[in-house]
């Protein structure tokens, strides 16, 4: 565009030179054309900006991760004039939802339209603004551009996926046959409480044959001891990075792993307490799978836009917690303050499991990486279970036996 402007200006100055030095009809015609054409070009571009029409459609605004949403757009020229140069640009974050999103260049002949459709792949949990950010119109001389920003865009809400786990490797949240017998031998009261799906390793004597025939799959009797297992889940809502793309990926992994573990626990009749700190500390308790929808809704709406230190929450939890509980900490921000809080937690007699996210494919500062490796090394020396997730696909390999 800069080059075109220089050329038009030189032509105008050249015509002015001929008029001033030679006069005559030809130089004056040349002068008026070089003066009028740019004005006509700019006016014509402004006219197009007010005349073209755009229609965007989306089949739905709510989806679960892994689903596809269809988006379509049409741009109309209803005049008898040509719309020479047009460019359609989308919101930057749309690239995380579709590989087909890229700027489009085209011209519109009279009484025609330009249409296209895109499949939106909901690859990550979160809220995304989808649609056209602006349409850029360029004049036929290439010296002037106008941008039109559509008033309507779509806010797409992608809910997290629930990974169905069959049997997790965390000893603290699974009652094996030997643990149940230990409860009997120690004098704890063990009673039949309900029915659950058969899990590999269950004693065949516990199979409930009537329910097995009714549901056409193996069902086991579930027993409850007086020493009830309680799980306390704490999630770190602090941003991982200043890069929005990295944050979306990290948050997706944290939320999906958290929800999947909660779903598994409630399916196995384990009491779950979720601790969330926003402006204050909130506790959300769930006792059975019927409570899952409630806690799922809360987790779906969590925002990772707080700057507090997760170690503060851990210290607050220790100061108020009196009951015996197994603690699971989900975080992407490992530092020595957090390490100290983990040490205090385990020293108080609570069993703690750390689930931390360290995404692949992104440059992480060498100093930060060194600190994380040092912390993980110390945790391993202290026999504190820690589990590294680099992507959502790791949930199966990391959590399941």
What attributes does this structure have?
single chain; 401 residues; alpha/beta; 6-stranded mixed β-sheet; 4-stranded antiparallel β-sheet; 10 helices; elongated
Topology:
Blueprint: H1 2-21, H2 25-51, E1 53-58, E2 62-64, E3 68-77, E4 83-90, E5 104-108, E6 112-121, E7 126-130, E8 132-138, E9 145-148, E10 154-159, H3 177-185, E11 190-197, H4 209-215, E12 219-225, E13 230-235, H5 244-267, E14 271-277, E15 281-286, H6 292-300, H7 310-320, E16 326-331, H8 336-347, E17 351-357, H9 366-381, E18 386-389, H10 394-399
Parallel strand pairs: 2-10, 13-14, 13-16, 16-17, 17-18
Antiparallel strand pairs: 1-3, 3-6, 4-5, 4-8, 7-10, 8-9, 11-12, 14-15
How does this structure look, described?
By secondary structure, the protein is of the alpha/beta class. The longest helix is centred in the first third of the chain and has 27 residues. The two termini are 62 Å apart.
Which residues sit in consecutive blocks of at least 5 with pLDDT less than 50? 173-192
Mean pLDDT: 79
Number of strands: 18
Q: What is the general shape?
A: elongated
Order of helices and strands: HHEEEEEEEEEEHEHEEHEEHHEHEHEH
Structural class: alpha/beta
The number of distinct helices, counting runs of at least 4 residues, comes to: 10
- Name the helicity range: 25-40%
Estimated radius of gyration: 32 Å
Sheet with most strands: strand arrangement? 15-14-13-16-17-18
First-residue to last-residue Cα separation: 62 Å
């Amino acid at each position: 565009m800069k080059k075109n402007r220089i050329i038009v200006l030189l032509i105008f100055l050249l015509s002015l030179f001929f008029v001033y030095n030679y006069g005559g009809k030809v130089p004056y015609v040349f002068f008026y054309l070089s003066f009028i054409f740019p004005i006509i070009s700019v006016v014509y571009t402004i006219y197009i900006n007010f005349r073209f029409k755009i229609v965007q459609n989306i089949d739905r605004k709510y989806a679960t991760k892994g689903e596809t949403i269809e988006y379509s757009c049409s741009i109309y020229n209803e005049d008898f004039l040509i719309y020479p140069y047009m460019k359609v640009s989308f919101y930057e974050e749309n690239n995380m939802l579709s590989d087909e999103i890229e700027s489009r260049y085209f011209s519109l002949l009279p009484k025609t339209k330009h249409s296209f459709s895109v499949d939106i792949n909901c690859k990550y949990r979160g809220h995304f603004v989808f649609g056209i950010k602006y349409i850029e119109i360029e004049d036929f001389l290439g010296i002037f551009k106008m941008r039109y920003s559509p008033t309507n865009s779509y806010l797409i809400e992608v809910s997290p996926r629930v990974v169905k786990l069959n049997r997790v490797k965390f000893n603290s949240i699974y009652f094996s046959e030997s643990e149940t017998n230990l409860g009997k031998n120690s004098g704890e009261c063990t009673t039949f409480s309900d029915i659950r799906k058969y899990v590999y390793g269950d004693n065949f004597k516990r199979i409930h044959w009537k329910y097995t025939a009714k549901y056409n799959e193996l069902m086991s009797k579930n027993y409850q001891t007086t020493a009830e297992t309680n799980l306390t889940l704490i999630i770190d809502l602090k941003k991982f990075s200043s890069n929005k793309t990295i944050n979306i990926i990290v948050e997706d992994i944290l939320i999906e792993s958290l929800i999947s573990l909660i779903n598994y626990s409630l399916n196995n009749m384990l009491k779950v307490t979720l601790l969330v700190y926003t402006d204050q500390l909130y506790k959300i308790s769930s006792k059975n799978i019927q409570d899952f929808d409630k806690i799922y809704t809360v987790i779906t709406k969590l925002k990772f836009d707080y700057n507090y230190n997760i170690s503060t929450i851990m210290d607050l939890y220790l100061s108020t917690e009196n009951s015996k509980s197994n603690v699971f900490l989900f975080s992407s921000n490992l530092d020595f303050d957090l390490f100290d809080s983990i040490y205090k937690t385990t020293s108080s007699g609570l069993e703690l499991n750390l689930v931390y996210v360290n995404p692949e494919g992104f440059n992480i500062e060498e100093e930060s990486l060194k600190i994380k490796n040092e912390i993980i090394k110390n945790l391993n020396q202290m026999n504190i279970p820690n589990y590294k997730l680099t992507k959502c696909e790791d949930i199966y390999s990391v959590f399941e036996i």
